[in-house]
């Protein structure tokens, strides 16, 4: 699998930067990614951050995510396993998990299920 981990910090030109959010359209239509783990350092996932990733099959969302943007995982047609660990989730944007693989598996805390209503499915 092509797996990526998002969280912690990155180094760029000798400097370290904390990663606390994933930008809008960050990996939109990325054809390579198959599995994503979003670490505990990340608090927000932007609009359309992973929209239309055709080979994405599994996502784990870290325990400190408070917001998932609109269409964040929209039209990831092979996405069938979603594990949301966050008990701090307060917002899930419209169509965040629409047009994913039919019959997919979503695991999340009870409080989160209300937020997902109408934002998951085909």
The total beta strand count reads: 13
With helices defined by DSSP (H or I, 4 residues minimum), what is the helix count? Answer: 1
Percent in helix: under 10%
Averaged pLDDT:
94
Shape: globular
Give the structural class. mainly beta
Distance between the first and last residues' Cα: 25 Å
Largest sheet: number of strands, sense, barrel closure: 5 strands, parallel
Proportion of strand residues? 25-35%
Strand order of the largest sheet: 1-5-7-9-12
Low-confidence segments, given as residue ranges, are: none
String of helices and strands: EEEEEEEEEEEEHE
Describe the structure in your own words.
The protein is mainly β and 122 residues long. The protein is 6% helix and 32% strand. It has one helix at 110-116, and strands at residues 3-6, 9-12, 15-18, 21-22, 35-38, 44-45, 58-61, 67-68, 81-84, 91-92, 97-98, 105-107, 120-121. The strands form four sheets. Strands 1-5-7-9-12 form a five-stranded parallel beta sheet, with no helix packed on it. It has a four-stranded parallel beta sheet with strand order 4-6-8-10, with no helix packed on it. The two termini are 25 Å apart.
Concise synopsis of the structure shown:
With 122 residues, the chain is mainly beta. The chain is 6% helix and 32% strand.
SSE inventory with pairings:
Elements: E1 3-6, E2 9-12, E3 15-18, E4 21-22, E5 35-38, E6 44-45, E7 58-61, E8 67-68, E9 81-84, E10 91-92, E11 97-98, E12 105-107, H1 110-116, E13 120-121
Parallel strand pairs: 1-5, 4-6, 5-7, 6-8, 7-9, 8-10, 9-12, 11-13
Antiparallel strand pairs: 2-3
List keywords for this structure.
1 helix; 4-stranded parallel beta sheet; 13 strands; 5-stranded parallel beta sheet; mainly beta; 122 residues
